[in-house]
Inverse folding.
């Protein structure tokens, strides 16, 4: 069963994004023409949201194509490093933004935009800095090299009001450890869209990976 998309850009919150799918695919795409069939395969497998990273020249075009042709899936931009990245992403059709870190300048710049930001944090201090701007949902990155599920679980004690999407080194095996934590509702993972399958156009295999990822929360 697929996730229901948010009703409008204006109404979408970071909390909405985190609750759309147990796994948010973290996608690097090389060809814009792959974007729409990729999104349709993920949606058919039960995924309601995509983080398209700004790590290739095709990223913004891919975001625009998905926003126009697959509106049932919520497309966001990842690896947002600057205000300019954020503005270009929103112009392309991104409905949310994801950053690997949480510098104050970026937090301040994105706060004026009509889309939510999942800011990256790896320490309690960074998490508290993000909350000063009113956000209680964020990305824990890089998850595995920052102490893994044990470290993230420890943050639930002093910061029980915060919710995280751990990303970085997440696999189908360790994802279940993160999803079992009280302060985690989803994880970010690149294993749903391996470059080899995307380049081969094996959309059926990607749909199967998406379906398996959705089953991790059951």
């Amino acid at each position: 069963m697929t996730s229901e998309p948010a009703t409008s850009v204006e109404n979408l919150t970071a909390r909405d994004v985190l609750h759309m799918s147990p796994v948010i695919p973290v996608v690097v795409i090389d060809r814009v023409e792959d974007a729409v069939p990729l999104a349709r395969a993920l949606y058919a497998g039960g995924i309601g949201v995509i983080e398209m990273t700004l790590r290739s020249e095709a990223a913004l075009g891919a975001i625009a194509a998905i926003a126009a042709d697959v509106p049932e899936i919520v497309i966001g931009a990842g690896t947002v490093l600057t205000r300019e990245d954020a503005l270009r992403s929103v112009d392309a059709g991104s409905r949310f933004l994801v950053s690997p870190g949480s510098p104050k300048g970026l937090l301040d710049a994105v706060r004026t935009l009509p889309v939510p930001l999942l800011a990256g944090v790896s320490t309690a201090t960074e998490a508290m800095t993000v909350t000063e701007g009113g956000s209680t949902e964020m990305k824990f990155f890089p998850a595995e090299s920052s102490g893994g599920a044990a470290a993230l679980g420890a943050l639930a004690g002093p910061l029980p009001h915060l919710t995280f999407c751990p990303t970085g080194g997440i696999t189908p095996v360790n994802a279940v450890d993160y999803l079992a934590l009280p302060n985690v509702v989803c994880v970010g993972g690149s294993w749903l869209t391996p470059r080899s399958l995307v380049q081969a156009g094996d959309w059926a295999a990607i749909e199967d990976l998406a379906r398996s990822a959705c089953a991790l929360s059951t």
Q: What stands out?
A: The radius of gyration is 16 Å. The chain has ten helices and nine strands. The CA atoms of residues 83 and 112 lie 10 Å apart.
